[in-house]
Design goal:
This protein is of the alpha/beta class. The chain has five helices and seven strands; from the N terminus they run E-H-E-H-E-H-E-E-E-H-E-H. Strands 3-2-1-6-4-7-5 form a seven-stranded parallel beta sheet, sandwiched between helices. The longest helix has 16 residues.
Length: about 170
């Protein structure tokens, strides 16, 4: 007797329920169009509140961004703010916990981050080559990194945002 196979479900058949998470992404100086498109898709998948682009305005007319985002750039909420420090300070005053995704002397592994389901989160990701500035890091409540076990000490920004959103949203589900 042949084994029963699973059939892939399409978008309208999936078994997922919609849940918006109190997470805002602050993308500081991120410029790669493929990365931005991927982050739009991840933001939709993890249903974040919004993306705030700082310093470099995304080119939404880029074909590469459009292809990578698979149209999510058309409905994921986002805004552009020139000054990342100002928006981070504003979010802090609104009661958000400010978390930077960066490898530093005092960063903790992402899986050790303690979040309660009632917390509102700002996750900051920095420029693909230069990361997050020390000035921005000084505003943060926590700095987290993703443990890696190979020779390289960095990971693609979109991939690291995806891993971080997975871990953070797990913690926000009561």
């Amino acid at each position: 007797m042949p084994l029963k196979t699973d059939s892939q479900l399409n978008h309208s058949q999936n078994k997922f329920s919609s849940k918006k998470f109190p997470v805002t992404l602050v993308l500081d100086q991120i410029s790669g169009e493929a990365n931005i498109g991927s982050i739009f898709r991840l933001s939709d998948a993890f249903h974040v509140e919004e993306i705030i682009f700082c310093g470099i305005e995304p080119n939404l007319n880029s074909n590469r961004l459009k292809r990578t985002s698979r149209s999510t750039h058309e409905y994921v909420e986002f805004q552009f703010q020139e000054d990342s420090e100002k928006i981070i300070q504003q979010k802090k005053e609104e009661g958000y916990k400010i978390i930077a995704l960066e490898i530093t002397e005092n960063s903790i592994p992402l899986q050790e981050l303690q979040i309660t389901p009632s917390e509102k989160i700002v996750l900051i990701a920095g420029h693909e080559n230069f990361g997050i500035s020390e000035n921005i890091l000084s505003f943060c409540d926590k700095v987290v990194h993703i443990n890696m076990f190979g020779n390289n000490s960095s990971m693609n920004v979109a991939q690291s945002v995806g891993i971080s959103l997975y871990e953070i949203t797990k913690s926000l589900i009561p």
